[in-house]
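Model the whole thing, not chain by chain.
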Amino acid sequence: MTDTTPTPRTPRCTARPEPERSDVPLGIWPVAQQTAQRQRAGRYLPEVARHPGKMLPALARRIVAEYCAPGALVADPMCGIGTTLAEAALLGRRAVGVELEARWALLAEANLDHMLDAPARQQVEVRRGDARHLAEVCADLAARVDLVVTSPPYGCDAGMIDKRAWLSGGRLCPVDTLNYSTDKANLGHARGQAYEQAMAEIYTGCARLLRPGGHLVVVTKNTRRRGAMLDLAGLTVALATAAGFSYLGHVIALHAAIRDGDLVARPSYWQATQVRHARAKGEPAHLVAHEDVSVFLLPGTRKDPADAR
Ligand SMILES: C[S@@+](CC[C@H](N)C(=O)[O-])C[C@H]1O[C@@H](n2cnc3c(N)ncnc32)[C@H](O)[C@@H]1O
């Protein structure tokens, strides 16, 4: 007799124990009162628009202001065009970013040159390297960093938008721009177990960089693929706590403007197009109008040099 029992589907993320969440405070930050373009206009180099997954400047600024003091050292292991570095420097922090791709690292450098005056620029550095090897790429920063703030790739095929090609029936994003580059070492390409393992290595590296009592703040967005949700925020909490962090708080970064008591969504062109596409295929997709900001603390107390005397 044929067994007609449906084969159970493999879950996207491997099972893991739920962290204690009951006392984790939740906040909401309205960081999109202005569009992303308006937030960058006249400040950032126009060329940064080419990067497909930038953090909102208002969000980067808010994280830096909330989780470290002026003069503190901020690191971003996957810094893209360096939004976190630029905003940290403008708030009087020192900053170091790591980026795998030469083109984004060079653009980050050029943008910092453009945005910062000489004294601030001297306090910021971009390193080319693989975030999975932070212990080597940033060996000199071990236990010296006050805040790690980063936004990893989201496990979806974001790429550079080519509106003209799209409107004349072509691809929205040229294939060679998907997932930040064609380099398979770029975690934009990683999915499932490979993504989890890489991010676990990166959070372990972040724990080595941070001083005890320092913070890790990770910005993610839950995405959907063929109707199934990829719970990146939940995965981030599981991986960071496994790497030794305490889950301190959670913030919803609103990607919608608050106008007269209503929320006006501010989707990127890419996101709006993806959702329209999914709906046209009958998938129950909605715009996700927020990012998750997961906040962690590296336990322990800072060793005050005065104690050694
Ligand atoms: C979501 S973007 C970060 C954008 C950044 N917050 C900004 O505002 O420009 C993720 C970045 O991680 C980089 N990346 C991917 N894999 C990496 C790796 N193994 N090591 C370092 N950077 C990597 C990508 O090239 C991309 O620029």
